[in-house]
Design brief:
The protein has 10 helices and 10 strands. The chain has helices at about 10-20, 25-30, 35-50, 65-85, 100-115, 170-175, 195-205, 220-230, 245, 275-290, and strands at about 55, 60, 90-100, 120-130, 140-145, 155-165, 185-190, 215-220, 235-240, 260-270. Helix 1 crosses helix 2 (about 25-30), helix 1 crosses helix 3 (about 35-50) and helix 2 (about 25-30) packs across helix 3 (about 35-50). The radius of gyration is 23 Å and the shape is elongated.
Length: about 300
Amino acid sequence: MKRRLPPMKALVAFEAVVRCGGVAPAARDLGVTHGAISKQVAVLEEWLGRSLFDRDGHRFRPYDEAAALAAIASESLDRIAAEIDRLAGGRRTLKVLIQATFAMRWVIPRLPDFYRLHPDLDVHVKTRQTNEDWRATSFDVAVLRGDETVKDWPAVPIMSETITLMGVPALAEQVAAGPAALAGHTLLCSDSRPAELERWLAAAGLPIQGGRWRRQCFDHFYAALQAAINGQGFVAAPLPVLDHEVASGLLALPFPAITVPGPSYAAFTNPAGSNAADAQMFVSWLQAAMHGLGA
């Protein structure tokens, strides 16, 4: 049966707009002009006989059906590219979607160990922020936190967080007398990890509300963490995600015995994907590295 396919240039441009989050970044990604992308999107919409985006000024928001089509197009184009690389004897690439802080503070510093074991495989790290919609993103491995899942992909447990208070060593020394000494110090929090500071205060037997705590809040946790590293206050933060920062002396735990449980992480891979073997190899390495088992 003859396939009914749209013009491929139009499909590639549409996929890039959704994947990159707009016409301008899609044009940069494909190395063409803004107008060329807009023209190809219009070609695809005319071919389909419907609009694919909710246009708000210069912003293009894909409708749900368009986002689903873009996800399929991304996966298909990635599989074609991977197979071409294999046929041409090129290097393999594995796309890994990871929570931003976990990627920056735990995974990326350990990637050189992975490359020593697998020098022929490149890892393309795609970071995502809490509450960010990642459905239209193309990936071979997704490392997700909490209750998030990838439909029909099996989950492999990676680790569970433990939340405790952290600050630079100089500040930690100032509160050595006990949690009550935190009065007058700044407590750092974020919108992306709500209530973790409050849960820690409750575990420490300290009042959650009241005027004794000076708070500085940020939209994302990695900003609050950077403020703590800068010596601007204390943050309720996760172990083992920040093991390196603690071991190196960048951050200290003033009250290591006072902890609250945090969310768990799991890795998801597509057993039927073109990069299934490499994806499983990366997840196995991730588990081994998390437990200090080496290769």
